[in-house]
């Protein structure tokens, strides 16, 4: 994955220029951005703008920066990135800020790259590990995965306001836990296969170790953090999980590498039945699929399924909208997940498309048993109205 010009023997680690996290961090956005430009453009959807406009306005005024918002269209497509890049050029902006979740942040990266200006990630949720990385996930207009887009630099700055994270729906933080738990599952597979990470080199020990640290923090702190966020509270557990979801998982996936969990996520986006799921929710189905493909010990698979069910993540195909899917539907998922450019090929063993489909089907039984052990009852299929 990424740029292989450096050759296969080099180990590469990538990171953003600066990472700032804490309650009220957004109030410092202006002074932090001022180090990178004097005419910023802030990309945000209407909901995020409504929640943050006052604090961002005050922050930019104190820093002596002009404030220009641009409305994010909602889907990180190539066309949306090109549109925002045109706004940057027409307005003479010299830095772009993605404000909100992973889709706005990924679009700001793409637009910044197209325009030749630095980009800043200002996260109001901790639902993905997108903010720190030098890549974007590009989707089609219908919401299906299209490709990864790689850049030669990471965000100049990442700002995460944990009070905003705590005030967002708890499901967002839970989805981030699903995204981040996959990081270690995938990084250890990439390490064992001597495969490339997302920046075109072999993983560094630090990248793989940060992936494991994210995992350890989440097993310790995810459940109390989610309980706190249910009440809009910022506790040490919340701070720890936000760091694990955003910084540690971001560094871990980019420099440690991806494998089957995210490839299965990409495959799931190819069918309409799963579009109700957040990124990290689909990734959790992918993590279970990878563990089953690996033949991981039953105790490990069952513990992971039960823990993520308690977190509130889907652990069955039923919850993903695929409980009654026929082989043809799952074959569409598998075909997308095993496309030649996909990260599933970083696994340290050979497999067939049938192996992937069988593992994906086996998730249902594993997830149902886990829900029963956790006292969560039968899984519910989504109501598509």
Automatic annotation (TrEMBL):
The keyword Cell division does not apply. Pfam families: Fe-ADH (PF00465). Pathway: Polyol metabolism; glycerol fermentation; glycerone phosphate from glycerol (oxidative route): step 1/2. The keyword Metal-binding applies. It catalyses: glycerol + NAD(+) = dihydroxyacetone + NADH + H(+). Its EC number is 1.1.1.6. Residues 16-162 form the Alcohol dehydrogenase iron-type/glycerol dehydrogenase GldA domain. Keywords: Metal-binding, NAD, Oxidoreductase. CDD domains: GlyDH. Coiled coil: none annotated. Belongs to the iron-containing alcohol dehydrogenase family. This is Glycerol dehydrogenase. The lineage of its organism: Bacteria, Bacillati, Actinomycetota, Actinomycetes, Streptosporangiales.
């Amino acid at each position: 994955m990424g740029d292989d010009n450096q050759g296969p023997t080099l180990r590469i680690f990538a990171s953003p220029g600066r990472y700032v996290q804490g309650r009220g961090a957004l109030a410092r956005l202006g002074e932090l951005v001022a180090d990178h430009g004097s005419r910023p453009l802030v990309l945000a959807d209407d909901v995020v703008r409504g929640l943050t406009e006052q604090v961002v306005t005050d922050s930019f005024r104190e820093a002596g920066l002009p404030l220009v918002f641009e409305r994010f269209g909602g889907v990180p497509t190539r066309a949306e990135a090109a549109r925002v890049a045109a706004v940057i050029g027409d307005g003479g902006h010299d830095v772009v800020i993605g404000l909100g979740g992973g889709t706005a942040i990924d679009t700001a990266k793409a637009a910044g790259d197209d325009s030749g200006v630095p980009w800043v990630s200002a996260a109001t949720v901790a639902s993905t590990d997108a903010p720190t990385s030098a890549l974007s996930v590009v989707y089609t207009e219908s919401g299906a995965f299209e490709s990864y887009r790689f850049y030669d630099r990471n965000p100049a700055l990442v700002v995460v306001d944990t009070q905003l994270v705590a005030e967002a729906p708890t499901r967002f933080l839970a989805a981030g836990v699903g995204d981040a738990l996959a990081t270690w599952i995938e990084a250890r597979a990439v390490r064992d296969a001597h495969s490339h990470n997302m920046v075109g080199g072999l993983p560094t020990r630090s990248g793989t170790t940060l992936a494991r640290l994210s995992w350890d923090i989440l097993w310790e702190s995810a459940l109390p953090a989610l309980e706190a966020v249910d009440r809009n509270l910022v506790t040490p557990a919340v701070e720890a999980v936000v760091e694990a979801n955003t910084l540690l998982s971001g560094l871990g996936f980019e420099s440690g590498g991806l494998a089957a969990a995210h490839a299965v996520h990409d495959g799931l986006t190819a069918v309409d039945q799963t579009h109700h799921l957040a990124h990290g929710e689909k990734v959790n189905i992918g993590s279970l699929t990878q563990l089953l493909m690996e033949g991981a010990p039953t105790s490990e698979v069952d513990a992971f399924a039960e823990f993520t069910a308690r977190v509130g993540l889907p652990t069955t195909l039923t919850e993903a909208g695929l409980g009654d899917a026929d082989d043809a539907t799952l074959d569409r998922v598998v075909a997308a997940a095993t496309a030649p450019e996909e990260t599933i090929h970083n696994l340290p063993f050979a497999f067939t498309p049938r192996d992937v489909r069988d593992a994906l089907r086996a998730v249902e039984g594993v997830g149902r048993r886990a829900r029963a052990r956790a006292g969560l009852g039968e899984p519910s299929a989504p109501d598509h109205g």
